[in-house]
Design a protein that fits this description.
Blueprint: H1 5-14, H2 17-66, H3 82-92, E1 96-102, E2 107-115, H4 116-128, E3 131-140, E4 145-154
Antiparallel strand pairs: 1-2, 2-4, 3-4
GO biological process, one term: protein secretion by the type II secretion system
Main location: membrane
Family: Belongs to the GSP M family.
């Protein structure tokens, strides 16, 4: 028997039988309460939290499924209209097209210059219309003026 329990056992032996029964009843009452407080209650809280996270994730999944997909986007320009679209939209964006080479149906290489902010906005608008930049060589000076050579094609 461990040496720590020997003094406790001797003390237990000195107690009156009535005191032993009272301590045993107290231990029998406290044991389930301690087990509940230390083991079962935290597990119940963790289960409730997991259920709430699960419901939140289900709601998020449902909301994500309701979002419009990329397939709902308006059809982009056809291959013959791509050079005209690029010339018109670059002029509207304040960009100066220096050179435009048609590389086949739906593919154009061009060089242009203008403000960096205008160039990036123009590229975003083109992407929304179904025109993808497949190659980009960009030089920007200290005044945020950009010179770009890029290849664009229909998605």
């Amino acid at each position: 028997m461990p040496t720590l329990l020997i003094p406790l056992r001797a003390r237990w032996q000195r107690l009156l039988p009535r005191e032993r029964r009272a301590l045993a009843a107290l231990a029998a009452t406290l044991a389930p309460l301690v087990a509940w407080g230390l083991v079962l209650q935290p597990q119940a809280r963790a289960l409730e939290a997991a259920q709430q996270r699960y419901l939140d994730e289900l709601l998020l999944q449902h909301e994500l499924q309701r979002l419009p997909t990329g397939a709902a986007r308006a059809p982009g320009p056809d291959a013959e209209a791509l050079p005209g679209l690029l010339a018109r939209s670059s002029a509207e964006a304040g960009l100066n097209v220096e050179r435009m080479d048609n590389q086949g149906p739906g593919r154009v290489e061009l060089s242009l210059e203008g403000g960096l902010r205008e160039l990036l906005g123009w590229l975003e608008r083109l992407a929304a219309q179904g025109v993808e930049a497949t190659a980009l060589d960009l030089q920007v000076d200290a005044e945020a003026q950009a010179r770009a050579r890029l290849a664009l094609e229909l998605e």
